[in-house]
Design brief:
With 148 residues, the chain is α+β, with helices and mostly antiparallel strands. It has 5 helices and 4 strands, in the order ααβββαβαα. It has a 4-stranded mixed beta sheet. The longest helix has 20 residues. The relative contact order is 0.23.
Length: 148
């Protein structure tokens, strides 16, 4: 039910983003940089990370090297949750995260400690950014999210 709050029936006004309005762009970037680092650490430990609108994971893949040599490797993926895909009619590549992959939520306490922010600020910043992201999906605007 947590991700249901990202299924928007109408456009959002600026009053829905009080935390983003209070933070500077560089503070928002710091929160997301720390969030990215947390996600990366989990992926390196073969865990998937659920962030409300979908899941980051590492999936097995293959690369062809030279004529006929196939190298098994792993690639990071983001899989939007199925309700979100349906609701916004998103076209996404089919991705199967292996069932044995343990899933973890974002650890806001750890992310906040990493950058010496209050946990509540980090949590609200991430939530409002995802809400803003959902709003751009709803309004069919171009949006670019980059993770290091």
């Amino acid at each position: 039910a947590k991700m249901m709050k990202y299924l928007l029936f109408s456009s959002l006004g600026p009053e829905k983003f009080p935390t983003l309005k209070e933070l500077t762009t560089s503070e928002i970037c710091r929160v997301w940089a720390a969030t990215s680092r947390y996600i990366r650490r989990q992926l390196l430990q073969k865990r998937a990370v659920e962030i409300g609108v979908g899941t980051f994971a590492v999936v097995p893949a293959c690369a062809t090297v030279g004529e006929d040599e196939v190298l098994p490797l792993e690639r990071p993926v983001f899989k939007p949750c199925k309700f979100l895909k349906k609701f916004y009619k998103l076209k996404c590549a089919k991705t199967k995260i292996p069932d044995k992959t343990p899933r973890v939520p974002l650890d806001f306490e750890q992310i906040a400690a990493d950058i010496h922010f209050r946990q509540e600020v980090v949590e609200l910043c991430v939530h409002e950014t995802l809400l803003f992201f959902a709003g751009t999906l709803r309004d069919e605007k171009e949006v670019e999210f980059s993770f290091k």
